[in-house]
Write a structure and sequence with these properties.
Number of strands: 3
Keywords: DNA-binding, Transcription, Transcription regulation
Strand content: under 5%
Number of helices: 10
Organism: bioreactor metagenome
Number of domains: 2
CATH class of the largest domain: Mainly Alpha
Shape: elongated
Protein name: Putative D-xylose utilization operon transcriptional repressor
GO molecular function: DNA binding; DNA-binding transcription factor activity
Length: 213
Amino acid sequence: MATRTAIIEQIYDDIRDKILKNEYAPGSKLSENSLSSDYNCSRTPVREAIKRLEQDGFVTVLPQSGSYVKELTLKDYQHIAEVRTYLESLAFRLNCENEVDIAPFSAILDAMDSCDMEKPNEVMTFSDLHFQFHLEMVKASGNEILLTTYNRLNLNTNSLLFYQRLSTQGKIQTQEEHRKILDFLEKRDATRGEKFMFAHLWRKRNAYRRSRV
């Protein structure tokens, strides 16, 4: 029999995946009664899963009303992408100064390479690994204030920013850029690497901005 923690984790993962796949549309209500029936459990683990989803920025809980899939505007995403670009570019420079080992990053990219973008579950895996790659880049900087700021920004929207239905060619291009970032890091080329990292991330910001026009 699954433990209570495992049940909560399963419910969390399933609802999160459905939100990312737009099976639960932004603004739609999540009924604890319906979900407890769907997962054949009491409302308690459902409530705990929803609490985690709220903490991670996927759900908004309104008193006396209920829980709803969070709605973020393109402007919200643009602003998040702008701040994220500067934070990660700084993290890259610090990593060059600290001469961090690139092996952990290479391992993440190897795992991303193995994902088949034609399979929805592997698209989700690619998304999670993509987020992990960038988060670990910030963690490696050793700057706790930078990491705290980044967490407040990105952990509230994590996979929502990294989830992409990339074509196989799009995945190849993304991975080539990631490998280039590691190449600059291995060479401790802070100036060119920071510039490349900035361009890599700012393109996402520009995409959100164009979508608003």
